Amino acid sequence: MMQDLQAIGIIIIVVLAFNFMIFFHELGHFLAGKWRGAYIDRFQIWFGRPIFKKKIGQTTFGIGWIPAGGFVSLPQMESMESIEGEAQKPDALPPLKPLDKVIIAAAGPLFSLLLAYLCALVVWEVGKPVGEVDGTQVGYVMPDSPAQRAGIRAGDIIRAIDGKEVTKWTGNMEGVRELIALSEHETIEFRISRPGEPEDRTLRSSYTLPETNWWQRQAMRTVGVLPAMPSVVGAVLPGSPADSAGIQPGWEITRLNGDPVYSPIALQKASATGQPLQLRLEPPPGSAEQACEFTVTPTIPRNWQGKEGAVPIMGISWANPLGSVQMEYPDPQTQVNQSLKWMWDTLKKLFAPGSSVKVEHLSGPVGIVSYVYKMMQASDGIGWRLALWFAVVLNVNLAVLNILPLPVVDGGHVTLGILEMICRRPVSGRFLDWIMTAFVLLLIGFFFFITFKDVGDMIGTPESPPEKLPNPEF
Question: What is the structure's pLDDT at 8?
Answer without folding.
Answer: 81
